[in-house]
Amino acid sequence: MMAVALIFCLGIANFALHKAVMDSRHPMTEQIPWLANPNGRKVALAIEFGVLFAAMLLAANGWPAPVWGYFVYSSLNGLSAWLILSGKV
Fold first, then answer.
1. What are phi and psi of 31, to 5 degrees?
2. What is the DSSP letter of 64?
3. What is the DSSP letter of 88?
4. Measured between alpha carbons, how far is 51 from 28 in angstroms, rounded to an integer?
5. Are 77 and 69 in contact (CB under 8 A)?
6. Which string of DSSP letters, residue by residue, matches 7-63?
7. What is the rounded CA–CA span in Å between residue 81 and residue 67?
8. In angstroms, rounded to a whole number, what is the distance separating the alpha carbons of residues 78 and 60?
9. CA torsion, ordered 6, 57, 64, 51, to nearest 10 deg
10. What is the pLDDT of residues 58-74, one digit of tens each?
């Protein structure tokens, strides 16, 4: 149960970072045509939800690997968001 809670908390952070990057109007996000329109952004958030949901389901059924995988995924998302939002990219 602790693994599911950890993944859920990481998921909240991922959604917040994803939204912040999309709302930043960074030139890199404007170059991706499907992210430049509102429907594409909804699809991107739906995919983010699908990844979160799958990781939570697998962790709830006793699979330990999704916890580590989602942690790595969240770390890479955090690093990417920091690079984009801080203007380093």
1. -80, -15
2. S
3. -
4. 23
5. no
6. HHHHHHHHHHHHHHHHHTT-HHHHTSGGGSSHHHHHHHHHHHHHHHHHHHHHHHTT-
7. 21
8. 24
9. -70
10. 999 999 888 999 999 99
What is the rounded distance in angstroms from the CA atom of residue 45 to the CA atom of residue 80?
A: 16
Residue type, 44: A
> Does residue 89 contact residue 28 with C-beta atoms inside 8 Å?
yes
Side chain identity at 38, as an amino acid letter?
A: P
Q: Report which of 50, 20, 45 is spatially closest to residue 58, judged by C-alpha positions.
A: 50
pLDDT tens sequence across 13-60: 999 999 999 888 888 888 888 777 888 889 999 999 999 999 999 999
